[in-house]
Design brief:
This protein is of the alpha+beta class and about 350 residues long. It is built from seven helices and 20 strands. It is globular and about 60 Å long. Bound molecules: flavin-adenine dinucleotide and NADP nicotinamide-adenine-dinucleotide phosphate.
Amino acid sequence: MAEILENVSLRNLNTFGIESKARYFSRPKTRDELISLLRQRHPAGLQKRVLGGGSNILITGDVDALVIRYDDASMNVVRETDEHVWLRVGGGHNWHELVVRCIETGLAGIENLSLIPGNVGAAPIQNIGAYGVELAEVFDSLEAVDLGSGEVHSYRSDECAFGYRDSIFKNREKGRYLITDVVFRLNRKPDFRLDYGDIRSTLGAMGVETITIGAVSEAVCRIRRSKLPDPAKLGNAGSFFKNPVVSEEVFEKLRALYPEMPGYPSTPDMVKIPAGWLIEKSGWKGRRIGQTGSHEKQALVIVNYGQATGTEILDLSAGIVADVSSNFGITLVPEVNIW
Ligand code: FAD
Ligand code: NAP
């Protein structure tokens, strides 16, 4: 039976490093422990919240809820063919450790997603993506426990409505489930994605002659370490906002005004504009207000210089949204989950 603790500090459990107390906190290690935790008698109306690695949340006060951190880090091969291996992984498994394990065992598909913080159970929530690859490409299915009823539900890939940093679990089913297991379909033969950003040039600088999934992972790690603040040293939750996606028509009008504005093809007839560029051009890159600010190397990352509260960070983000809106007519939407 998973123990329930009271008034637990979440400071070391969120990568922003925000101090906050959870009224109740529990860490079930198995699905059975989770279900019996959910079926216990709790105070009427008690909310349940799921916490993974805490790398995509902004906590804005004490959390008057039962906060559940699921600790199952199991990993099993469930099916194999000449081309693919299906791996079932517990929601509490660290994401980057899964990437490393796959590379060690020659399983390709997630090497470009190296060094993303957090746990496997959170990965489908925003369909994690980086360096031209998204989780959806290797996702097979998941199992999740309904936090209200304790029932187990399964979702296939086509039922998850995966989109750009988006899924059904960030919209219609937001807050309903705890994802306990994810099944990945990994490739025995790599399909290298090297055309994004500095991957090729970094592989060149590393002196790599024969490309391997390990070399690609190492290149991605090097690029990330050179650009992104390490949450262990400077609190942050990665990109604070999503990159906005606008119609080609809107993009062309903006480009007439700002010829250097970058844009990348998104879904048909739509263009993705890097939010970091809009924030930088609005004068926020590297700007600090008290204990928080936009990072000096990547404007899209908001950092905690040590003692910021969640509300201070939220206020700073509102200032950024207002300036980008008045400069470009685009409303930035947070990617980070606000608690
Ligand atoms: P948490 O922050 O704990 O939770 C995020 C949300 O998911 C919350 O709403 C929570 O309730 C819910 N949740 C968590 N676990 C579960 C579960 N098991 N079941 C149901 N709901 C759950 N993201 C990218 O996509 N690409 C990147 O390249 C990337 N780079 C990053 C770099 C840095 C330095 C940082 C700090 C963050 C980065 N992120 C990136 C964001 C973040 O790492 C991912 O979104 C990650 O998947 C969050 O995992 P987590 O376990 O920390 O989730
Ligand atoms: P970057 O390379 O400076 O690029 C800025 C933005 O432009 C990125 O967000 C990216 O969109 C887009 N972009 C760049 N080249 C592209 C291409 N060839 N095709 C399509 N889109 C392109 O970005 P960065 O901040 O250093 O991050 C590198 C990668 O890591 C990105 O994929 C980013 O999403 C990911 N990352 C995510 C987080 C997070 O918290 N979500 C944090 C850090 C890094 P995309 O975001 O769609 O790739």
